[in-house]
Amino acid sequence: MPPVTFAKEITVEGDQISIKRQSETGYDIVAAKLPALVSCSSGINEPRYPQLKGIMAAKKKEIKVYTASDLGLGPDEVGEKGAREKVLSVGRPPKRQAGKAVTDEGEGGKQIADFLAEIKVI
Asked: Is residue 112 part of a domain?
């Protein structure tokens, strides 16, 4: 599935999707065949705030509930049996360890470089 990222504007025509993506030099237009994975930038949507008439109409709308059988899905396609992933655990991330303080007495740059080499950053 092709990834189409940082979309600021999306257009779908038939089985083709095209997006407008902001770049350093202006806008890039990227196209891909559907299905595609699209990620959006934060500026893609300007929220619309509902008016009182819309709020009152929404209260009267019926909420339809569909079961798996209504959607044509069997018991092996939903729930734990139908899941493609399995959550092994949920918890807090480990606490961060204290950093290393470097006092510069003429050798500070060397100490930092040695530390970065030790953790294989450089």
From this structure: no
